[in-house]
Design goal:
The chain has 295 residues and is of the alpha/beta class. The protein folds into two domains: 256 residues, Spore Coat Polysaccharide Biosynthesis Protein SpsA, Chain A (Alpha-Beta Complex), CATH 3.90.550; 34 residues, no CATH class. It has twelve helices and 13 strands. The chain is globular. The structure holds 1-O-phosphono-alpha-D-glucopyranose.
Length: 295
Amino acid sequence: MKTITKAVIPAAGLGTRFLPATKAMPKEMLPVVDKPAIQYVVEEAVASGLDDVIMIIGRNKNALANHFDRVTELEIALERKGDHSKLANVNHSNDLADIHFVRQGDPLGLGHAVLRARKHVGHEPFAVLLGDDLIDDRDELLTPMIEQCQKREATIIALMEVPAESISMYGCAAVEPTDEPGVVRVTGLVEKPSAADAPSNLAIIGRYVLRPEIFDVLEETAPGKGGEIQLTDALQVLAADASIAGGVYGVIFDGRRYDTGDRLDYIKSVIQLALAREDLGADLAPWVKELGARL
Ligand code: G1P
């Protein structure tokens, strides 16, 4: 199978949970410590060899395009000051990957956003990374998923165990074991079920390695939960009939994942990632402890 090089990053959400911060700025640009959330996601794709990135964007998304472009006046100012470390930081995001932008047009759901990448992706397998989920770069996820896609010639999704009361926020998978630990065969998928209807406590987290057959299925997928064209519904079609594209398998992730799409989890993400940083962690840790003791 051909090497996988393309990553689709849907970034057209309205970011309503973060209003008013996201009134004029996309939620993907919210800083997580000192980098916009979207940069972590692009860095993760690149670390797994995916340097051809297609971002699906909506309104107010010019900031995203600008972030991955050069800013000559800033470069000149930093050059003049001789601040080479800041200059390297500024230029890092321009040089990361080959980034293409596609407008989503009508925001009809995640499945619709992925379908917008069809022309650029063509007939190759590709990854989808959702910007709300950040995966700690010390823990592997996307690379083993790509390996599974190549080995099994099947669709691969990332799954994580969540508490039963949280499953209604996610796509949920019914699974059966394979002969490999940490890899399951997905027998069914349902988008955001109630705890009572959920077939398991395995949630889809925002990483997928898809085969191009998904596009034909998405074209036929009717609006589902919330009136949106759901990627989960198209994946269910592939899981139910392995003759279409080899079926669906899940890689179970038990590493560090940060959900930046929810305000409380966003705050926790910033603190956890800052604690892990060499330049901030040592000063922040005692303050967090002291704060905890005072509460
Ligand atoms: C989307 C998917 C859902 C998945 C989730 C992961 O939902 O539709 O299946 O579990 O991402 O973050 P959203 O969070 O965009 O509503």
